[in-house]
Amino acid sequence: MTHDDMMAFAQNWIDNWNRRDVDAVLSHFAADAEFVSPLAAKYSGTQFLKGHEAIGGYWRAALSRITTLEFTLDHAIWDERRRELLVVTDANLNGERRRAAEIMCFGADGQQIRGEALYGATL
Fold first, then answer.
1. pTM of the entire structure?
2. What's the CA gap between 89 and 13, in Å, rounded?
3. β-pairing verdict for 48-50 and 69-79
4. What pLDDT does residue 18 have?
5. Helix (H, G, I), strand (E, B) or coil at 7
6. CB contact at 8 A, 38 and 119
7. CA 68, 69, 75 angle in degrees (round to 5)?
8. What are the start-end ranges of the E strands in the chain?
9. Is residue 87 very low, low, confident or very high in pLDDT (cuts 50, 70, 90)?
10. Burial of 37 (0-12, 13-18, 19+ CB in 10 A)
11. Domain enclosing residue 95, as ranges
């Protein structure tokens, strides 16, 4: 994957979230991918999720309680050696704006194998 491929991926990822298309976001995850989010425990009982069913279940539960969802890409950083993408956004969740970032690690086949959501200060 090239730098340009990952930048296009980052924008597509944001577009999918802004459409609330969980299946499209999940489609780039490997079946046994792992995902960590400090908010996941609120919706699924644990911060550590593994596999499509657990990750998708968390996202669907969270989206059912979020009326306003809008991500705007600030920037993304691609580390080719580690196959890791950092996507930094301004996130509007129910009218509260904050910085957010997601670390995405990809396998050699291009599928995401790990992800971690990070949430920052309110803007």
1. 0.92
2. 11
3. unpaired
4. 97
5. helix
6. yes
7. 145
8. 29-36, 48-50, 69-79, 84-93, 96-106, 112-122
9. very high
10. buried
11. 3-122
Q: Quick one: DSSP state of residue 9?
A: H
The pLDDT tens digits of the residues spanning 51-71 come to 999 999 999 999 999 999 999
* Distance of alpha carbon 73 from alpha carbon 61, whole angstroms: 24
Q: Comparing C-alpha atoms, which of 113, 95, 94 is closest to residue 104?
A: 113
Strand partners, 97: 92
Residue 2: the pLDDT is 80
Q: What is the CATH number of the domain that holds 53?
A: 3.10.450.50
Q: What is the DSSP string of 10-33?
A: HHHHHHHHHTT-HHHHHTTEEEEE
Burial class (CB in 10 A: 0-12, 13-18, 19+), 24: middle
Query: Looking at the 3D structure of the chain, how many domains does it have?
Result: 1
What integer pLDDT is reported at residue 53 of this predicted model? Answer: 96
Mean local confidence (pLDDT), 10-33: 97
User: Model confidence at 120, in pLDDT bands (50, 70, 90)?
Assistant: confident
